[in-house]
Amino acid sequence: MTSLRDAGVRFGARWIFRNLDLSVPVGRSLAILGPNGRGKTTLLRSLLGFQQLTEGRREAPAVIGYVPQYAGHEVGYSVRQVVATGRVARRGLFAQPTARDMEAADEALDRVGMRGFGDNRFDRLSGGERQLVLLARAIATGASTLVLDEPASALDLRNQDRFLSVIESLRADGEHAILFTTHLPQHAAMAADDALLMFGPDDRMLGPVEETVTEDAIARLYGIPVRIVDCDLPGAMRPARGVIPLFGQAGSQP
Ligand SMILES: Nc1ncnc2c1ncn2[C@@H]1O[C@H](COP(=O)(O)OP(=O)(O)OP(=O)(O)O)[C@@H](O)[C@H]1O
C-alpha cells in the first residue's frame, strides 16, 4: 500500500496541495489529472519520498518502479542495459546485472513491445520509444507499486493503445498498484479504476472514474467544454470511452 495522510506541500507561501488523503492498494490504478503547474509531479515526488512533505505522513514500500517525466540520456547504454538497471538498483549502486536480470529485462521489453530494440543505444531512441523503455524498466524492478509521470505524453496513437493495454494487464494481474499522471482524460477513463482531479490546493475530486471523469468535472478542471463518447464496437474486447475537447469553445463556458 502506498499512501499519504493529511499531506501537504508548500513552496514559500504557496500551498501546492494540503489535507490530502490518498491510498492506492495493490490491484488498483489511479490517474492524476490537473492543468499544467497544478502539482501532479510534486504529488508523485511526495509519494516517492523525493519531495519532503510540509505536513502529513507518507507510507510506501521500499522499492517503487518509477517512470520520470524527463529521462536522463544514459549515454552509450543499450536499451537492455537501461532496463536491467531497474533490477540492480535494489541491490546497491555497484551491483552488476546477472543473466537472470537480463532475462527479466527482455521479458519487460516484450511486455511493452520493444524487445526488438534491446541492442539499440538508449540515447539514440525517439522520445516515444524511450518512454516505452522506461516503462519496461519500471516493470523490471518487480516492484508492486508503479509511479508513472506522464508516461504516454510522447506516444503516437498506436503506442498509446499499447501503453493502455500494458497498464490494463498490470492491473489485471492483481499484483501492482499503479499511479499515473496524464493530460489525456480518456487514458484515465480507459486504464484507471480511480481518478484524482486537482482543481486547487485544497479543492479536489477523488473516486471511481465513472464518477470523476465526467463532462462537467473535466470542463471545470481545464476550462474547456468536453463531450464524453462511449463506443461499443462489434468484436471489440470491451467498450471504448473517448473524451473530446471542444476547442475554441472555452469562451462560451460560464
Ligand atoms: N522545488 C520547487 N520550488 C518551488 N516551486 C516549485 C518547486 N517544484 C515545483 N514548483 C512549482 O510547483 C508548481 C507545481 O509543479 P508541478 O511540476 O508539480 O506541476 P504539474 O502539475 O506536474 O505540471 P505539468 O502538467 O506542467 O507537468 C509549479 O508552479 C512549479 O513551478
UniProtKB/TrEMBL annotation:
Record-level Gene Ontology MF annotations: ATP binding; ATP hydrolysis activity
Keywords: ATP-binding, Ion transport, Nucleotide-binding, Transport, Zinc, Zinc transport
Coiled-coil segments: none
Record domain ABC transporter: where: 2-225
GO biological process, one term: zinc ion transport
Transmembrane segments: none
Family: Belongs to the ABC transporter superfamily.
Protein name: Metal ABC transporter ATP-binding protein
Organismal lineage: Bacteria, Pseudomonadati, Pseudomonadota, Alphaproteobacteria, Hyphomicrobiales
